[in-house]
């Protein structure tokens, strides 16, 4: 594969070939800290997922002394430093040691705490997989492992920093609730609902720049998908970062007269079979996820359709093919794999023609 | 003495090249690991232009020394060296990180000539180097295996599993260089997760340790020349005390420049700073 823009950027006009939000803290000039301030682009930080995690956990901890937060040298990237500033006695930075972090969180949970352990999804879910299963899920401890910058949202950081397998791995672990947040408000709702949820959880977050899907903080019921849009010709089941572009795609098809329902399947496990049944009533289902097409939302949907006797429903699964993705800025990768609203609309058009 | 002086002058020039290329490539990407590349600049050039036994026109030469950049986020400083040595056309770096480029933030052995092992997930590199060193021994080769570790990643347990195994297997053909630049992302390692005394921790696992100023090219060359021949024996560690962000005043030991983006006037100012060598005097 050859870069389409090869050799064209050496002259100084670099900014115009960048998409503006491709780097995990934005691309405005300056240091990490400066970019944090500038990359909001004038928007309210409360609407930007990247700025929510530490603040919301801090709010919850104001009223609940069981809550503790851990990270692995990424307090600035995931903003758990906002929690640390307010509750330093219940914040622990373990350094670059993810497995240790997760099992330490389990140890605290075994002693009465509700622990939130956050790092890149590639390290929390993949590196820490066995610790999550053996030390968190099996004993049923209230550890909330947070995998942020999931999928391919790390873009040109490359394969080591991508997590396109995490849902499949996590979905296979018994007694583990697996949830994806699609925007800032839903992330708040997930965190609020998680405090007293029994057992261990894996919470998957994107790069933190996801646009708004929910105007207010929703009441999140784990295992129950949210229907965001009605429709009779087809239904999209989307999760996490793909909910917003799926909504945009459905709107675009509506302009051509197609009626497409959209469901936010925020919980991969336990899986909402009823939502799949409702989606199946349209006769055409499209699943959309930022994940390897193996063992994620599309697979879970196919299982539910077939087992529910809906084998005749037309199903398309939009996901990352079973390959290691190329190097590239996130937005370029989404377009490359048709996981932006243009690509989803195209896939939807084909589904409607099926 | 004159020969050494000329060698050091050349390396100093190449270290400046590493820094200016890091700044240039970061602008193409819109973000870069400036500070982690700058701290390693003298170490990387001493290795690639002086110490490593290489044939850039024959990257798979079985008798070459191997190098694993475990702190893979410093790859932006290594790519220009590999291009300069002829592993690939330097123009390939002009689309650094763009869709389909072979050159991402972390080095990829599948895509880049001269990269012996991929990295990016911290804590893996030393284990890979142990495997490469074991393979060299089994095949009867006298090549060395080198591994550069960041100090932050010394918090990873796998590093110490690897260190223990290298001591156990008496891998005298293995050399670790620790870029002790004092900081991980969230702060000084002394504050985030204490890792000292690094040299004593390695020697406890059966290694021989040296500790040097990692920006002093004479000291680096002396340390490398002091290594015993690659044979069964103690694995070797060179703990290089460095300054994260070394060479650009605003970045030196700054909490803000692990990842950043220099553009506009900032870009020009930093390029001027590097060109005039002002930073060498400003630095501590």
Protein architecture, described:
The complex is a heterodimer of chains A (354) and B (284). With 354 residues, chain A is an alpha/beta fold. Chain A has helices at residues 32-38, 53-62, 75-78, 80-86, 98-109, 121-127, 129-137, 166-171, 184-194, 243-254, 273-280, 297-307, 330-336, 341-353, and strands at 30-31, 67-71, 91-93, 114-120, 143-148, 176-180, 200-204, 226-229, 234-238, 260-264, 267-269, 284-292, 314-320. Chain A has two domains: 12-204, Thiamin diphosphate (ThDP)-binding fold, Pyr/PP domains (Rossmann fold, 3-Layer(aba) Sandwich); 226-353, Rossmann fold, CATH 3.40.50.920. Chain A is built from 14 helices and 13 strands. A seven-stranded mixed sheet of chain A has the order 3-2-4-5-7-6-11, with helices on both faces. A five-stranded mixed sheet of chain A has the order 8-10-9-12-13, with helices on both faces. In chain A, helix 2 runs parallel beside helix 4 (80-86) and helix 10 (243-254) crosses helix 14 (341-353). The radius of gyration of chain A is 20 Å and the shape is globular. With 284 residues, chain B is of the alpha/beta class. Chain B contains ten helices and eight strands. In chain B, the strands form two sheets. A five-stranded parallel sheet of chain B has the order 1-2-3-7-6, sandwiched between helices. A two-stranded antiparallel sheet of chain B has the order 4-5. The longest helix of chain B is centred in the N-terminal third of the chain and has 28 residues, at 2-29. Chain B starts with a helix and ends with a helix. At the A-B interface, strand 1, helix 1, helix 3, helix 6 and helix 13 of A face helix 1 and strand 8 of B.
Salient structural properties:
heterodimer; A: 354 residues; alpha/beta; Rossmann fold; 2 domains; seven-stranded mixed beta sheet; 14 helices; disordered N terminus; B: 284 residues; five-stranded parallel beta sheet; two-stranded antiparallel ribbon; 8 strands; globular
């Amino acid at each position: 594969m050859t870069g389409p823009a090869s050799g064209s950027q050496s002259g100084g006009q670099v900014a115009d070939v960048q998409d503006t939000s491709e780097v995990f803290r934005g691309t405005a000039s300056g240091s990490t800290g400066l970019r944090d301030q500038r990359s909001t682009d004038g928007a309210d930080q409360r609407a930007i997922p990247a700025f929510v995690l530490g603040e919301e956990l801090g709010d919850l901890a104001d009223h609940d002394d069981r809550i503790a937060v851990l990270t692995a040298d990424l307090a600035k990237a995931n903003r758990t430093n906002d929690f640390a500033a307010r509750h330093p006695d219940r914040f622990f930075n373990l350094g670059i040691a993810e497995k240790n972090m997760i099992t330490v969180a389990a140890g605290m949970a075994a002693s009465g705490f509700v622990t939130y352990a956050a790092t890149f999804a590639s390290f929390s879910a993949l590196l820490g997989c066995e610790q999550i299963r053996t030390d968190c899920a099996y004993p049923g401890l209230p550890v909330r492992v947070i995998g942020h910058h999931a999928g391919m949202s790390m873009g040109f950081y490359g394969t080591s920093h991508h997590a396109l397998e995490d849902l499949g791995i996590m979905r296979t672990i018994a007694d583990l609730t697996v949830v994806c947040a699609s925007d800032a408000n839903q992330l708040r709702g997930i965190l609020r609902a998680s405090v007293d949820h029994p057992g261990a959880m894996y919470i998957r977050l994107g790069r933190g720049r996801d646009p708004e899907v929910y105007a207010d903080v929703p009441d999140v019921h784990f295992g129950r998908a949210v229907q965001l849009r009605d429709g009779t010709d087809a239904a999209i089941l989307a999760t996490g970062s793909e909910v917003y572009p799926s909504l945009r795609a459905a709107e675009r098809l509506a302009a051509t007269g197609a009626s497409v329902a959209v469901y936010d399947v925020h919980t991969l496990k336990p899986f909402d079979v009823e939502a799949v049944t409702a989606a199946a009533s349209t006769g055409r289902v499209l699943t959309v996820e930022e994940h390897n097409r193996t063992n994620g939302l599309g697979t879970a949907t196919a299982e539910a359709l077939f087992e529910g006797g809906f084998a005749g429903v037309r199903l398309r699964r939009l996901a990352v093919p079973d390959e290691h993705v190329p190097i590239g800025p996130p937005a370029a990768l989404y377009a490359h794999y048709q996981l932006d609203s243009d690509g989803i609309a195209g896939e939807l058009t084909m589904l409607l023609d099926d | 003495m004159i020969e050494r002086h000329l060698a050091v002058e050349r390396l100093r020039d190449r270290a400046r090249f590493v820094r200016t290329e890091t700044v240039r490539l970061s602008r193409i990407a819109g973000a870069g690991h400036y500070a982690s590349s700058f701290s390693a600049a003298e170490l990387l050039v001493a290795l690639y232009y002086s110490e490593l036994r290489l044939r850039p026109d024959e990257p798979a030469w079985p008798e070459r020394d191997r190098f694993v950049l475990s702190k893979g986020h410093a790859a932006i400083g290594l790519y220009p060296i590999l291009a300069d040595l002829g592993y690939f056309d330097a123009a390939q770096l002009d689309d650094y990180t763009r869709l389909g480029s072979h050159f991402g933030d972390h080095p990829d052995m599948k895509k880049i000539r001269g990269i012996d092992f991929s990295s990016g997930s911290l804590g893996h590199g030393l284990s890979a180097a142990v495997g490469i060193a074991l393979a060299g021994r089994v095949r009867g080769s006298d090549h060395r295996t080198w591994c550069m570790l960041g100090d932050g990643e010394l918090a990873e347990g796998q590093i110490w599993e690897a260190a223990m195994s290298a001591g156990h297997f008496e891998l005298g053909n293995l050399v670790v260089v620790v870029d002790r630049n004092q900081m991980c992302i969230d702060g000084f390692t002394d504050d985030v997760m204490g890792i000292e005394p690094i040299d004593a921790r390695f020697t406890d696992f059966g290694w021989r340790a040296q500790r040097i100023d990692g920006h002093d090219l004479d000291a680096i060359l002396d340390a490398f020349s002091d290594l015993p021949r690659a044979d069964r024996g103690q694995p070797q560690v060179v703990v290089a005390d460095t300054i994260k962000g070394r060479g650009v005043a605003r970045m030196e030991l700054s909490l803000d420049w692990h990842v950043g983006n220099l553009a506009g006037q900032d870009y020009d100012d930093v390029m001027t700073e590097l060109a005039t060598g002002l930073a060498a005097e400003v630095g501590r």
